[in-house]
Amino acid sequence: MKRTEIAELINSDCERDRVLIQGWVRTRRDSKGFFFLELNDGSSLKNLQVVVNSDVPGFESLDAISTGGSVSVVGKLVPSEGKGQTWEVQAAEVTLIGVADENFPLQKKRHSMEFLREIAHLRPRTNLFGAVFRVRSRLSFAIHRFFQEHGFFYVNTPIITSSDCEGAGDLFKVTTLDMDAPPRSEDGFLDFSSDFFSQQTYLTVSGQLEGEAFATSLGKIYTFGPTFRAEDSNTSRHASEFWMVEPEIAFCDLQQDMDWAEDFVKWVVKEILDTCEDDLELFFNFVDKGLKERLQFVVERPFHRVSYTEAVELLLATGKKWEYPVEWGANLQSEHERYLTEEHFKSPVTVYDYPKDIKPFYMRVNDDGKTVAAMDVLVPGIGEIVGGSQREERLDILLENMKKHGISEIDYGWYADLRRYGSVPHSGFGLGFERLLMFVTGMANIRDVIPFARTPGNA
Ligand code: 4AD
Ligand code: MG
To answer: Using a 6 Å CB cutoff, which residues line ligand 1?
Structure first.
């Protein structure tokens, strides 16, 4: 007999004579001559109540069953007389699968997030984390749907790479050299010619550069995969291993790039509102009271757009004392970004045309010579969720920028080739998948939306 999932049974539109359910016990309540089990099989936030009478075959085998244990039940799906549920299962036959002793850490009481992080292998069995990871899966699917339905091709860019896309230097090195006695060249530097790839390699910080090669071939592409950053940022929004979505679009300027980014965020948020009702209800009620309104707002209202220069003026005009001073030419810090989106505009904001000197080599230089066609999408509660730009498609200017950034014309010759042969204006962006998931669920820490988080000092 095939197992029926609880998600299906709780929405059943009729009684069912014989179903097999298998799951983990959330609670057990004993009464005279029978007991109740609240069973959860992970398919849904909701449990299914099972009534086990003492004359049911297997009754004794469940003597030891308590919170956390696993069981198999064959029975009849009948209307429930109890409160809070439409259906329950009247057991006809029960089997013990696995006991959980009283040391099972997830007994029915509130646990701190810190404690739950220490048992990352068990926390998906809680209501909260079950919901987080079901929504994570849905969100991933929604992202693929958006791009596939809008004519984008999915490209898998390499995880091991020799290029440093963002030029920020926060790269994890990949090597098989003997760390105790690495080979050195005559001038004392590490000799990577005898390393596995005969050169220095890293874990990718972004698939963008390779994505550009495919966008300038297939037209519209996206990548969606793990990225790695060795930045020592111990914040609630930074992880050392995170997933990034990076669309790249040929024949596209910054204006259209911002349109894509905004449409994309709206579309996936709406998709989650439409498909994750039960799980979202938990976040609305227990995680973030303002969440529902915020998500609806994002779907319904246009994002604000403001140039970096205007944003700086606006921040200066507040007369506020910032931890990091605001001045034209400096990066916007999280406190500035959050002021813009949470207090000033009270909506998502797209900031564009950033100073050239604080941005990577590949961004297209604007006519003013001082700014580049870059944009960031900022959302309330998080700040930057998307970073993107129009790419420099003019070979001479690109080569000049590479030189300024100390980037080898030989190593990046392939990248320059994309401008040598049929160069076209093109743009793209990167969206931090976990940041979007935080936004959608109201979860406050990135460590709590990744199955097994990797952060500084913690793997
Ligand atoms: O702004 P970033 O660094 O942009 C890029 O990497 C570009 N190559 C993207 C592109 O144009 N194709 O990163 C993009 C997004 C950020 O907006 C943020 O949401 C997320 O990636 N992100 C992180 N998320 C979690 N932990 C970190 N350490 C992150 N660093 C960036
Ligand atoms: Mg960025």
So the answer is: 165-166, 206, 208, 229, 238-239, 242, 244, 246, 384-389, 428-432, 434-435, 446
Q: Ligand 1: distance of its center to the CA of 23 in Å?
A: 38
How far apart CA 211 and CA 152 sit, in angstroms, is 12
Query: Using CA atoms, how far apart are residues 443 and 435, in angstroms rounded to an integer?
Result: 10
Cβ 28 vs Cβ 68: under 8 Å: no
* Mean pLDDT calculated for residue range 97-107: 94
Nearest to 389 by CA among 352, 344, 355, 424: 352
What pLDDT sits at residue 73? 98
Instruction: Identify the pLDDT of residue 149.
Output: 98
Give the burial string for 123-137 (b: 16+ CB within 10 Å, else e).
Answer: bbbbebbbbbbbbbe
The bound ligand whose nearest atom lies closest to the alpha carbon of 168 is 1
Q: Which residues pair with 153 in a beta bridge?
A: 221
The CA angle 286-49-46, to the nearest 5 degrees, is: 30
What percent of the chain clears pLDDT 70, i.e. is strictly above it? Answer: 100
Nearest residue by C-alpha to atom 14 in ligand 1:
430
CA dist list (Å): 423 to 212, 216, 243, 262, 369:
11, 8, 29, 26, 21
* Partner residues linked to 106 by β-bridges: none
Residue recorded with tokens 């006695």: 181
Q: CB-based burial of residue 112 (10 Å sphere; 0-12 exposed, 13-18 middle, 19+ buried)?
A: exposed
Residue 391: CA count within 13 A, CB half-sphere: 32
Q: How many CB atoms lie within 10 A of CB 183?
A: 12
**Gyration radius of the chain's alpha carbons:** 27
Nearest CA to ligand 1 atom 18: 432
What pLDDT does residue 10 have?
95
Task: Return the residue whose CA atom lies nearest to atom 22 of ligand 1.
Answer: 432
Distance CA 288, CA 114 (A): 18
Q: pLDDT averaged over the chain?
A: 96
pLDDT digits (tens, 9 = 90+) for 5-47: 999 999 999 999 999 999 999 999 999 999 999 999 999 999 9
Among 275, 220, 261, 223, residue whose Cα is nearest residue 389: 261
Separation CA 128–CA 108 (nearest Å)? 13
Sign of the dihedral through C-alpha 236, 240, 241, 246: positive
